[in-house]
Amino acid sequence: MTTTVPPAGTPTPLVDPARWPDVARVPDVPLRAAVAARLLRRVAARRGLRVELPGGRTLLPAPPGAPVLRLHRPQDFFHRVGESGLIGFGESYQAGDWDSPDLVALLTELATAPETLVPTGAQWLRRLYVRRPPDEELSTAANARRNIHRHYDLSNDLFALFLDPTMTYSSALFPTGADHAPVATREALPAAQHRKIDRLLDLARVGPGTRLLEIGTGWGELALRAAARGAHTVSLTLSEEQLDLARHRIAEAGHSERAEVRLCDYRAAEGRYDAVVSVEMIEAVGRPFWPDYFRTLDRVLAPGGRVALQAITMPHDRMLASSRTYTWILKYIFPGGLIPSVRAIEETATRHTRLRLTRADAYGPHYAETLRLWRERFTERSPQVAALGFDEVFQRMWELYLAYSEAGFRTGYLDVHQILLTRDEATA
């Protein structure tokens, strides 16, 4: 179909069709577009959204202060959403078809009870656009490195632009105020990341002489903290970019004798360890391979050992509903993964191993604040991101990813847990 010329001030990223074929292509699905338009009207009315159209018009009256969805190219938006649902919603943002003066506020409203967005009697519409994740993105041993490469090997310099100096890409744990809400500032972020790491190491009882296996190195900060305690750490990663920088940071800190980083799939882990830690790595494993993951933890854990995991989680019913759905996040951000529920972790470990879940502590609001700080820094440093070779479509994609994730934690659709697994040695 023909795209109309947008008015002045409309986001118009230059879309490279070779790099972003599904963002460059506007589908032509008039019937589905009409359904999407009717659905948006219903959602706007029920959720009190202000939908702004070109020329200063609004779709419906909205209360003061309502979250704003600003449609620059309504027809393109409706055709994209009509063809592929939430994937089209995300691609439409990448293309500049819509915007919002407060993206998190809008997405927070949409992420609140998302199962109610589509009327019960119209749930059959999901069959029009919901697809299963492609087999080539399943996190098999053959595919896992490629999946990890697509996200974590983008550029160490890119991540350094928005992460704090610890280069920690997972939820921090901030101090809390009198209302128990996290007190999060940029200045507090490095200490909050260390507080998170130290709490996890304490949970696993890591100290002098501990033989520690870390699954998912990141850029090496946990291995550094463990080495400073006197532990001997083997850390596994599939990211070559992370491998290089983590090894450099460990050597620079003088801990090379105590911390070793290997380019290795978790399934190929060798040795026996007093403790195993893994921070926000299980999300990349994929549901079909959760048994393999937990069997690996069980296999390498020495008698009396402890496993401490940090995991992004979601409610069990929502996990089941989304477990075979190809989403925008899977397509563009984290191929091959699935966010588990605490129940799924407990049931998988119990069914396939001798490990038992003995503790699970949640602190989702801290992740919302961590993401806010990352998102603000990422957007502020847009010129530096562009200088690294990342175009505007990529930048809009990452802005949406960070804002979407923040909204998920603010609504409770997502949570983050530190989880302790131990083995009943009497029955082992």
Short overview:
By secondary structure, the protein is an alpha/beta fold.
Give a description of the structure.
Strand 4, helix 9 and strand 5 form a beta-alpha-beta unit. The chain has 2 domains: 110 residues, no CATH class; 288 residues, Rossmann fold (3-Layer(aba) Sandwich). The strands form 2 sheets. Strands 6-5-4-7-8-10-9 form a 7-stranded mixed beta sheet, sandwiched between helices. It has 428 residues and is α/β, with parallel strands linked by helices. It contains 17 helices and 10 strands.
The helix/strand series, from N terminus to C terminus, equals HHEEHEHHHHHEHEHEEHEHHHEHHHE
| Helix/strand/pairing category | alpha/beta
Cα distance, first to last residue? 64 Å
Q: Write down the CATH topology of the largest domain.
A: Rossmann fold
How many domains is the backbone divided into? Answer: 2
What helical percentage do the residues reach?
40-55%
